[in-house]
Amino acid sequence: MFLSNERILVIVITMLYWHMGEKINSDVLLNARAEYGKQVIKYLSEQLTLEYGRGWSQQQLRHCMHLASTFINDEIFYSMRRELSWTNIRTLFFGLFRIERYIFRKRFRNGDYSGIKV
Q: Which of 41, 84, 40 lies closest to 62 in space, CA to CA?
């Protein structure tokens, strides 16, 4: 199966967001939260926006962090990112309740992609 250039770009961007969230969670925040975390996210957002332009808001960084903490096992995430775009992932995982996420992850692991629009 060949992927279009557009699809490859979507996959790469989604991987970037996962890696960014993983790096912030593990290396920057050292899995800590609270006030320190808020200050760090604000600073990172400002610095990334200065260096790379818009698209690195505090909310975006929190989405990246949530993605990485939801998919700790990168093998599952790597399988999923080929099927879903960042927008699909955000819609599914930031708008659903925990049980729905659990059911979705279980279905996805079993190869059931029915009902998912890419």
A: 41
SS3 content of the chain, % helix, strand, coil (to 5): 75, 0, 25
Helix and strand tally (H, E) in the chain? 6, 0
Interaxial angle between packed helices 58-70 and 34-52, expressed in degrees from 0 to 180 and rounded to the nearest 10: 110
> pLDDT of 51-85, one tens digit each?
999 989 999 999 888 888 877 766 666 677 667 77
Please state the pTM of the whole predicted model.
0.66
